[in-house]
Amino acid sequence: MLSLIVFLPLAAALALVAVPRLGDAVSRWVWVVVAAVDLALVAAVWLRYEDPGTGRLAFEERAPWIPGVNSSYHIGVDGLSLPLVAMTAVIFLACAVFALRETDRPRPQAALFLFLQSVSLGLFVAADLILFFLFFDLSIVGMYFVIAGWGHNDAGRSAMKFFLYTFLGSLALLAGFIGLYIAAEPHTFDMVELAEQTPLAGSSLGGGLVLAAILVGLAVKTPTVPFHTWLPPAHTDAPAIGSAVLAGVLLKMGTYGLVRIAMPMLPEAWRAWAWVIVVVGIVSVVYGALVALAQTDLKRMVAYTSVNHMGYVVLAVGAAGMVADDTAQARAIAVTGAVTQMVSHGLVTGALFLLAGVLWERAGTYDMGSYGGLAGPAPRLATLFAVGAFASLGLPGLSGFIAEFQIFTGSIAAAPVTALALVGILITAALFLRALQRIFTGPTRGASVGFADLRPAELWSVGTLLVLSLLIGVLPRPLLDVIEPAAEVVVELVGR
Amino acid sequence: MRPALLLPEIVLFLGGLVVLMSGSFLPRTRQWATRVVAATALVTATVLAALALPGPAEMAMEGTFTVDTTTGVARIVVALGTLVVLAMASDEISGTPRESETYALLLFSSTGTLVLAGADDLLVVTVGFLLASIPLYGLIGIARTPLSAEATMKTYLLGALFGILLLAGVTLLYGVSATTSYVELTDRLADAPAAVVGTGVMAVLGGLMFKAGGAPGHFWVPDAAQASGGAVAAFLTTVPKIGAVIAAYRLVSMLPDTVAWPLLVALLAVVSMTLGNLAAYWQTDPRRLLGWSTVSQVGYLLVPVAVAGQSDLALPSLLVYLAGYTVTNLAAFAVTTAFPDRRDLHSYRGMGRAHPWLGAALVVALLGLVGTPPTVVFVGKLTTTAAAWDAGYVWLAVLVLVNTVASLFYYLRWIAPVYAGGEPPGVLTTPRAVTPAAWSASTAVVTAALSVVLGVGAGVLWSLVSV
């Protein structure tokens, strides 16, 4: 079942490439249909999902791949990965719908995004380090071609920077994986076995170095300060749906790696260096928010708020490593919040980037100063953007609040210093309100004049993402019921 | 003697002779017949090698030549690699005055490479070195351009120099052990003065580095890759390495601990990969860029040699890397022979949009050379790096990964224009720059696909090479 979910988009992508003389319209609809079927399959998995318990995975599949190095095709889901799998399927469907009016080479674009979808889903279900790395690397390759092929402005350069920077991260990650492999006895790349074994326990230097390599690799992808510099140009020059996938799905690969690989496999080193991770998280939160505040370019601003939002996740998982006897419950709440934040940020930021893409498509600029009074000609755009902005700044009733509330409840109890990051929420609120005010209020002027409001495809794709955010905000239980047991397991594993 | 064990080598050599003789009597329009003969010899050698692969390790020629899994894999990879080169040559040199001579030289050089790969005796190493090198000089010069004359001269002089170095090394080792057979050398070198053994080993390794195209014997590679014909360039950057690296592996495996050969090989590896990568950075000719890239690849190939015997992964990872590198590098060269007149990275602008399959093949090949999963070079790189780490050479493993990042940049310099919009600067006027050559184009697509298939099916490949 999981294999079908992962490889269905890839098969469709190959078919799109291989079948000659397929019309543009057919390609676009094939993409939408395949993404919808994939989402339906994920929904079916979600409905049949039951928590597998410590050290186990649901819907597990395993087949030998490279037996010589004990690497296997091993996949499965648990409470950490299932929400991200679902979010990935949702975001790719939203992108497919959003791109229904795309005229620039729709067929290769559809194939490329279907390929990226397979890769992203594969990463979240991978239970083998080499399999994880394979999807991690291919996501970089796919996104490079998205930015270089469909981007604007200085897309070639931004794509190159993105590729080089994140590839550097991926090789640091690979070095860490090889370190884990060699330290494990018997040597293996299997995630479940490695989490059981905790190789390098008792070797503080080896464990620290391997953790450092893995952290650098994941921090580049996340990205956290100081490894975030590839993100703003990549986002600014990427096409709208490329940005949505990059921010919505690809950034999660970094933070997912933290809870899936770093914490369970290197608990001792994680506890020893938790304070560093917390500091990096706080700095990312505050710095991301401050720099976002200084932006005049809407897309750059949203990009920097991603640094801020991913900072909350890093902070929470760092705080989860500040182990004390009486804070186990608080730390579990922090991890639950972190996973919720990954889902929430994917939905909300994906929506905001799609809306920014609408601005670019209509007026050819992201400069907030060029707009004004846009709410007049484009009320639907204004409404959706406002909902997205409020969700992003953590207004109660939307998913961002559920996530950030849990993150801070858990983190401050485990490590009071994390309260410093609360200022990030304040700044984010300020910058989003200011952006709303500059673009949408006042007399209609500049690029806003004659601006066409959202078309149905745009409305539906963005609207769905925000409705889901609202649903999570109002009825969080179905999501939290899946995440909570897995978060408790992670906390238990880190506490070993 | 047991010459039957050497049947694949004999078939290749005889095939070369037949091609040479019959080529002299055939009119120029019917020279294609010699290509058929050469291809038949290569296929026969592959089949014979594959049949012999599952058998036990045996010694031929009074213990001077080993026929084991390693030799078997080398035979298959060399024969199939040369077959791919023949396919590229079909576009390039069919009907040209030196057609049959090229095929004959390719077969002779392949035979020499196989002799190197199986050699278990220093003198056999020398014979293999000469048999693999001398045809190469002819192959490079056969293009008959001023640049190729220069490249031939350079290769010949370096080859002569390193050949003498190799012989000097053999002489030294013989002088302190009174034998050239590896079986006996192992014991006798242990009691010999370490300084002499070290010097001798360095000299022999130096000779092999010339053949492999690694530092310090790499200077001829970029020139030859740029100046010779496309098929020949593909051959000389790929096939001779197989024999040379395996010969280096066998050589160091029999050395005693009195000399610090792992460190020496590790340093050669680091120098090769770093130098090759740095020099490739600003190349504008795709074949010259690939030439430097192969220098860096030799560096990666030397990593498992440096940890020979210290990790169970070393030998299988070396063989997987060799097979993967061969198929991937040939795919990249096949794209350049499909467009022989595009001799500048910028002239590839828009190629991927006009020829999607070739564009995809090039991307797979170049990202494969970087070591991106799921191509087979990734499996090779992963396992060689793991072998180095396993043997305690963590710094070497880290340097491999650092160099991999460094290499990405110049491969991307080639990939970037392929999918960029617009026309290449200086409109493509010649038909050979617009329409891809048929054989090379299919070869590129097939080898690129094979590089992915072998990567995904790495488990099977691994079990084949670690029998």
List keywords for this structure.
heterodimer; A: 496 residues; mainly alpha; two-stranded antiparallel ribbon; 18 helices; 2 strands; B: 467 residues; two-stranded antiparallel sheet; 20 helices; globular
Describe this structure in a few short sentences:
The complex is a heterodimer of chains A (496) and B (467). Chain A is mainly α and 496 residues long. Chain A has 18 helices and 2 strands.
Choose one word for the global shape of chain A.
Answer: globular
Low-confidence regions of chain A: none
Q: Helix proportion of residues of chain B, in percent? A: over 70%
Q: Estimate the mean pLDDT confidence of chain B.
A: 92
- The structural class of chain B is mainly alpha
Proportion of residues in extended strands of chain B: under 5%
Structural class of chain A: mainly alpha
Low-pLDDT sequence parts of chain B: none
Quantity of strands of chain B, as a count:
2
The number of domains of chain A is 1
Using only C-alpha atoms, the radius of gyration of chain B works out to 21 Å
Oligomer: heterodimer
* Averaged pLDDT of chain A: 93
**Secondary structure: helix percent of chain A:** over 70%
Largest interface: A-B, 33 and 32 residues
How far do the termini of chain A sit from each other?
33 Å
Structural write-up:
The complex is a heterodimer of chains A (496) and B (467). By secondary structure, chain A is mainly α. Chain A has one domain (2-494). Helix content of chain A is 73%, strand content 3%. In chain A, strands 1-2 form a two-stranded antiparallel ribbon. In chain A, helix 12 packs antiparallel against helix 13 (328-363). Chain A is globular, with a radius of gyration of 21 Å. By secondary structure, chain B is mostly helical. Chain B has a domain at 282-294 and 309-467. Helices cover 76% and strands 1% of the residues of chain B. Chain B has helices spanning 7-25, 32-52, 69-93, 99-118, 122-141, 146-177, 182-191, 194-212, 220-227, 230-253, 261-280, 286-306, 314-338, 351-354, 356-370, 376-390, 394-418, 431-434, 438-456, 458-465, and strands at 58-60, 65-67. A two-stranded antiparallel ribbon of chain B has the order 1-2. In chain B, strand 1 and strand 2 form a beta hairpin. The longest helix of chain B has 32 residues, at 146-177. The two termini of chain B are 25 Å apart. The model of chain B has no long low-confidence stretch (mean pLDDT 92). Classes of the chains: A mainly alpha (496), B mainly alpha (467). The interface between A and B is medium-sized, with 33 and 32 residues.
